[in-house]
Amino acid sequence: MTKELRLTSAYSKTITTTLLIVCLSLFINLSAETKRPVRAKNGMVVSPSTLATDIGVEILKNGGNAVDASVAVGFALAVCYPSAGNIGGGGFMVIHLEDGKSTTIDFRERAPLSVHKDIYLDEDGNYNPDLSTKGWTSAGVPGSVAGLIYALEKYGTMRLSEVITPAIKLAENGFEVGYDLANHINIFNEDFNEYEASKEIFTAEGDSLNEDHFLVQKELANALKLIKENGRDGFYKGYIADLIVKQSFDNGGYITHKDLQEYNPVERMPIKGNYKGYEIISMPPPSSGGIALVQSLNILENFEFAKNAWHSSDYIHKTVEALKKVYADRSQHLGDSDFYDVPAQWLTSKLYAKSIFDKIKTIATPSDSIAPGIPVTYESKETTHYSIVDEFGNAVSTTVTLNSSYGNKIVVEGAGFLLNNEMDDFNAKPGEPNQYGLIGGEANSIQPGKRMLSSMTPTIVLEDGKPYIVVGSPGGSQIITSVLQVILNCIDFNMDIQGAIDMPRFHHQWYPDEILFEEFGTTHDVISNLILKGHNIGEADSWIGRVQGILIDQENNVIFGGTDSRAFGKAVGY
Ligand code: DON
Fold first, then answer.
1. What is the pLDDT of residue 376?
2. Closest-lying ligand 1 atom to the alpha carbon of residue 474
3. From atom 2 of ligand 1, which residue's Cα is the shortest distance away?
4. 254, 287, 312, 369 - which has most CB atoms within 10 Å?
């Protein structure tokens, strides 16, 4: 989650117990009673943007499959959801096909070939986070264009021109930004003013945007047209590539023509798990998401949660104790598996999970006394999410990102798109936290051509081999805990997809050793009990994750869509 969205108020001083309890019950009642999932028979698109959702549904209605719609939504988000939708960043796609095959497409950014592991350290060896989060030095080699086109060519049914044209029209004709997007863009007004091309698009001649501002992006439209006409070469070679490379060189960045030409998406075997009879299909490294999700579920499977245990101190304690170990393992063992031998099978094994479960006590284990596990021989690994299912039985779960909101805030001059600052997801120095407070070591050190470790967790849960839940979220390190809790809410607590998404969430990531709750996300009684068990409670967060999900009732042939009330997306089915 971006820092600017976090609240700074601590529970103890600012909110009285009574107010907290009243507000919590209001929140729960409202979400449970007034907002119901969207229902449909044929297909469903849930995305963080109403414009992008409508584009995806049109593709489905015109006979496209879920992959066609996902690619169309991916390009549309680059226009109408600029904080995270992108062609200058990367992402992951998890696909389950109607014939039973599951696969994933990794279009994560790569480190440029000229980097080395100490590029963000000064001569005294001190880490300078500005270099990995700001300016051209923070940009990884973009993967989205190659990834979306790969997905379309291999698993889609439509031509590139059909799925990219709606995005081109949106950029060319423009759209009214509206209240929420205007406010979000305006948070970064100062940053956008630093770069002429960014100022041009995301400010009103330097000032904040009004909600009725009409956002026309001619240069972005032209960039998308070049991609439409030339496929991936329209981005990785020629006019756009020349602009990226020249501006990168002029501003101390690392991206070269060779980096762009050599970029390739990778199709990878999904991480698979099983939770209480449901099959989990999720993203393998370079994401930590799939492994961490399956490992968490494997540990928690050893508990039976009664329905009225939801968000009790006992439930939160058990989940948090599991998460501490999962994030400790993440810090040590997870990185790009093309560069580092990730012990995925061991981490996702029931046996290892059982050994962790056996050590969970009724009191908290301080993070200082938890260390990453040592693999043993029984081993034989602002962002946004959208979920889509089609009438043919295909399901696609896609998470894309520029890392921070609007990436490094740099619009490539002449090409109209924002660049990522994904390099900050590497561990620039062992033990130094990145912007999400995540620490790590050798597995996720900077190396030329390597992909930085991600927490993105696009996931599909199968019931009897057919899609049951399609889910994912933004939120940096909080993505994993958000996806986990939505799955638990559906499977263990039998919530509908809208309720499962809207319910308050909590988070723990080993370090810092504290449980975070959302504002009004718990009660004083629960916090007191957790403190009695030895837990530390952090400051309230304004939100933890922004989930876009689908749940399919295969028996009755009904598709339910839910978009997070924390955000401003839309679920539409037909
Ligand atoms: O890949 C990752 O894990 C991060 N770059 C995701 C960033 C993110 O979720 C920001 N959203 N709020």
1. 58
2. 9
3. 454
4. 287
